[in-house]
Structures are given as structure tokens and as C-alpha cells.
Here is the input.
Amino acid sequence: MASGARLLELFGLEGKTAVITGGTRGIGLSMARALLDAGASVVVASRGADACEAAEAELAPHGSATGIPADLSTRDGCVALAERVGAAHDGIDILINNAGTTWGAPFDEFPEIGWDKVVDLNLKAPFYATQQLAPLLRARGSAADPSRVINVGSIDALQVSGGVNYSYSATKAALHHLTRVLARELAPRHVVVNAIAPGPFPTKMLAPLLGEHGERIAGSSPLARLGTEDDIAGAVIYLSSRASAWVTGSVLTVDGGIATTLPIGWLPDE
Here is the structure.
């Protein structure tokens, strides 16, 4: 087989269908573009109908993209999304649980809603979305080419960020472990489950911090920059394609080395 054909066999996504929650902006939108460019069709889900329509228009030059409004912070919302997807598709190949939120407040003032809102979207939603879409994933998976669940975690689950986002860090750490639990649960059903732990990307969620501390945040990476759309594209195509068919229960860190190489603060510089 020619080398180009072999690469397409390993990394191409022609004929695949992906569902991306929180896929109308930021990293989710970048992932949608990447999967479309690799040959997949994509369903992006977001709470706002306007956001879904805007994403459809933006993604149209890249391939077949459909937006579905869905409030995934409740189990009922996840059920409704699965019903909408199932009405249009007899199976799906890829589910990316990307929808998420954060809440920042000082320790002594951190409110209960700052836990409940973040837990509902960052932790409950990935579980129930996976639960409800599992039959559609099983319909497409095989031993040679299993279906994929990709949970979007964070490097804040791997290190203490120093911020006041207590519920965000905790839910992302829990999501990383839920990834391992679901990997064991779903492997016999020909579904593999992995996570991506992104570092700092220029997203709307991170915009306030980047506006004030952008240079310092970029400089915390030994590569001295923020993540780009190509960086997340490579990771999501790998975890969505046959190239990763024997990978499950893993967390792929995409952060320019921040979580693994940042010096311990109390050690003297050499």
C-alpha cells in the first residue's frame, strides 16, 4: 500500500459521524473544523439556537455540519440530544464531551451555585451524554475500529493552577478518572474512551486571564506560546481515528509541556 493511502487509512475519517458538545465556539469549534477537514460529518450541540446556526454557517465550507440546541446540564437535556441525533443517524462514531464552564470566587466567598453549575455541566453532562448516546456508538463500533468517546479535561486537573476555580479543577480531575472508569465499562462494547487535557488556548473562557496575564501564561510553557487550532486538531484527529484503536483510558495532555515541566516553585533556579 502506498504511504499516502496508508496514512489516510490510519488518520482519515471519511464516512464517520461525530457529535461535539459545546461545539459552537473555542476548542469545540476547532475540533469540529478538524474532523470535517479529515472527512467526518459533525453534529455540534450548544445551549443557544443562535450559536448553533452561526456554527453551521462557519463550518459549512469545511463539510457537513449540523447544529442542535441542547441544555446538557440536565439528564433530560442529554436524553433530548440523543433522541435528536438518533432521529437523523442510525449510529455515530465519535462523541466529544467538550461542553464546560467555570466559576471563580475567593475561597471564603465561593457560592454553592459555583459548585452546582460547574458539576452539572463539567461532570454530570459527560456521563449522561455518553450513557444516552452509547447505543448509537455501539452501532458503529467494531474490534478493529471501535467507536470513540473523547472527554475534554484540563491541565488544571493535573496540577494546582493557583487560581480560585475550585469547582472547575475538581470536576476536571473527576472527569479524567471517569474517563478511565468508562473505558473499562465500554471496552467490551467496542467503544474506547480517552481524554484530552488542554493547556492555555486563546478561548473565550480564558480571555479575561489572557488579557491581564497573557505573556506570563504563554511563558509558563517551555515552548513559550499558547496553543493553536492545529495543536488541538492533531490531538483530536489522532484520538478519533484508527491510529488510536488500541488506546483507551488515557489522558493526552496538550499544553506545551506546562503540566510536566513547570519547575517546582521552592527549588532555586540553576
Notes: The longest strand covers residues 191-198. The beta strands are 17-21, 41-46, 65-69, 94-97, 147-152, 191-198, 251-254. The mean pLDDT is 93.
